[in-house]
Amino acid sequence: MAQGQGRLNSSTKIPKGNLSDGNRKLDAFSKRQMLAQHRKSLPIASVDKRLVEEVQKHDTLIIVGETGSGKTTQLPQFLYNAGFCGDGKLIGITQPRRVAAVTVAKRVAEECGVNLGEKVGYSIRFEDMTSSLTRIKYMTDGLLLREALLDPHLSRYSVIIVDEAHERTVHTDVLLGLLKSVQDARSKSLNNLQNTKNKKTNNDIQLKENGAQCLNFLKQYQGRTPLKLIIMSASLDARIFSEYFGGARAVHIQGRQFPVDIFYTLHVENDYLDASLATIFQIHLEEGPGDILVFLTGQEEIESVERLVKERLKQLPENSKKLVAVSIFSSLPSEQQMRVFAPAPPGFRKVILATNIAETSVTISGIKYIIDPGLVKARYYDPNKGLESLVVVPISKAQALQRSGRAGREGPGKCFRLYQEDQFGKFEDSTKPEIKRCNLSNIILQLKALGVDDISGFDFIEKPTRSAIVKSLEQLFLLGALTDDCKLSNPVGRQMACLPLDPIYSKALILASEFNCLEEMLITVAMLSVESIFYSPRDKKEESRTTKKSFASPEGDHLTLVNVYRASNEFLEKRSGLSKEKREKAFRKWCKENFIDSRSLRHARDIHSQIRRNVEQMGLRVASCGDDVLQFCRCLAASFFLNAALKQPEGSYRALANGEIVSIHPSSVFFKNKPECLIFNELVETNRKYIRNTTRIDYLWLTELAPQFYAVQN
Ligand SMILES: Nc1ncnc2c1ncn2[C@@H]1O[C@H](COP(=O)(O)OP(=O)(O)OP(=O)(O)O)[C@@H](O)[C@H]1O
């Protein structure tokens, strides 16, 4: 286990006590009293008036304050109470992650004593929990960008708080640029109106006399308040943001609630999974009560540690077995993610195995111990090769601080860093902005839809490389989303921008309505939007392979996914008479027997209903190609032509767009029986360059269906 000395100390302390345990026993009234007391004890509470004044004085404000000091939950309430929601305006708070938006909104609704969706609500992709009463709205940064498509001046908002800005997600970065221009536009239009008002009141007595005109004018005037923008985090370099916003004011909130002692290892840990496991059990057996949060790099790793925890528990004496493991990662459906927030059964300790999804913003009640191996899985995109790689890299200092900050929120905590202190010293201060390492097609499509034609001229806080912009523009042009002069095409580009999907998937849906196979494509896109439908336990590899074959389509992985989805439909329809619980139980059993991840399939079914609604609203024709699966394969070729590959003599493939030599992923139906030509969904580099989700196509279709690319090149 890690050893060392405490590093963080509290400057503000409140009496010890486990709020959530107490809460359960209290009635609603005393619960509210307790919440009110808790609110008062937060470090931010002592500076509430000052913060409100700062927001009143400055249009842009940067707030840096310790983790857990109360920024996310309290500031919106201070602003609401100070009258920032007059005229029915909203305070919007963006989060980089869905789970944070949902859980923080729930907490704030509870603190305000209202039902979620009334005064306090949240909105995330595929889920809206707001109403006409909502004034404090938590949402993902991506969602606010989408809102700007419909309301370019974000006129419903008086304040926007961009929380956890240190994460520098591509959405946060673009949002900052957009908010800067919205602020500008709103101030200008306000000045114009002010001038008009002055002129009119000076020269035009009629205005005062004409009640209707005056009322109209006032309405117009009041609708255009300046947009207040607040940028927040516990770990951001205020200087960068301040410079970007023309010397915006930055304030620091002092103090944290409870101390978190930091421990480092004395030696380098070569096997961090083994070290994590050892630390979990050392805490469990030697430390006092309190739950554990472990940061791992991905689903596979989480599932393997979960299995190892269960195995090791079997070897412990009966009185030491009271430990439950729960996991959280981004591809889990929201309702499954929420399980980590439920208390452990009485007398049990909970260990949460999480990716960096639980790194910022969230408070998980009961967490006292953090285990941080110091690693994260990050996506890197090479625009020249069109190659995405998933690489495990060291975290930044900012991330380490955020991770330790998940403890010390309800009482003192401990953070075990499974690396040496001098290793920590070598970590980058902050995380490399995502915009510098991701495929930009999606974001460029959205910017175009927002009317930003000159992407290179857009005021990014940090500009992506020119080659990344050019490559993405080229891709969008080839997909038909842009015209020759790089404007959004009508209707295809506009329709693509309306769908909350990767441009290539949106294009596949639009084309599918022409190929009469939108029903199959909707299923395919939904199934591809979740991590992995099939799983194969180590001890049942052969059995799971045989079961998977029963769904396999000779055309490839896409129709195999369609077969799984339809089989689940059939299964559920036959049990439509059962109660919801019984049906769900039967569904899970069926999934288990078929080596299907029930959580992923449930999630895919939800996504399917959402995007089906989207395409219906757009007026696309939803029809099935029935047995004419060739139509579906041709449609895949017409949409994924940029991802076509040809078999090489030695059995590998050459990706036609970039010449990369790639292998078929072992999970594919074509792993052994390889067709001459295929299209794939993903090209990912892990230990090799793999293509995943493939369908057999005829090479000649490419020139016929995508002449814009193949007729020129070949
Ligand atoms: N869901 C919750 N359950 C229990 N306590 C909570 C919950 N959410 C917040 N709290 C309490 O409110 C405090 C302030 O939380 P808040 O999220 O506002 O802090 P923050 O300053 O935004 O932290 P961070 O920078 O880590 O996001 C927490 O430390 C915790 O004590």
TrEMBL record:
GO terms for cellular component: nucleolus; spliceosomal complex. It holds the Pfam family DEAD. GO terms for molecular function: ATP binding; double-stranded RNA binding; hydrolase activity; RNA helicase activity. Residues 52-254 form the Helicase ATP-binding domain. CDD domains: DEXHc_DHX33, SF2_C_RHA. This is RNA helicase. Residues 179-210 form a coiled coil. The keyword Nucleus does not apply. One of its GO terms (biological process) is positive regulation of transcription by RNA polymerase I. Keywords: ATP-binding, Coiled coil, Helicase, Hydrolase, mRNA processing, mRNA splicing, Nucleotide-binding, Spliceosome. Residues 1-13 have a biased composition (Polar residues). The lineage of its organism: Eukaryota, Viridiplantae, Streptophyta, Embryophyta, Tracheophyta. Residues 1-23 are annotated as: Disordered. It catalyses: ATP + H2O = ADP + phosphate + H(+).
